[in-house]
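ESCALATION

Customer reports they have been waiting on this structure for their group meeting. Please prioritize. Original submission:
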Amino acid sequence: MKIIHWIIFGLAGWVMLVPFLGDDIFQVIFPLSTVTDTELVGLLRWDDLFVGLAIGLLALVVVTLEQPTVRTAGLRSMHWMQFGLGAWIATAPFALDFDMTAFTWSHFVTGMFVAVFALIQINLEGAKH
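Update from on-call: job pushed to the front of the queue and completed.
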């Protein structure tokens, strides 16, 4: 199902954009909070940029190479890589000790969706062999 790959691609875009836009949105919603750029930049921007790029590139590669009748070990391994990266996005707030609840929940939910969608693809590939 290619739609799942496009959903994962969209989630990867979200992962990449939130750290760059999220601090500004957070300041508009909570103008009196003390969000420092040092905390946010240090914990989110580069990690999320590269992990989001990796998830997005994997989704694009899989969606272009995947055929309805042919399954390969390479495509299955790309789904496992997406699962691992989604799991990292979900657990990163806890591993890096975020103190911002909104970003923690955004990461956790987005990472869980990426991981679950990757597992769905792995399961669908196993059912078609």
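Sent to customer with the following note: The chain has a mean pLDDT of 77.
Escalation resolved.
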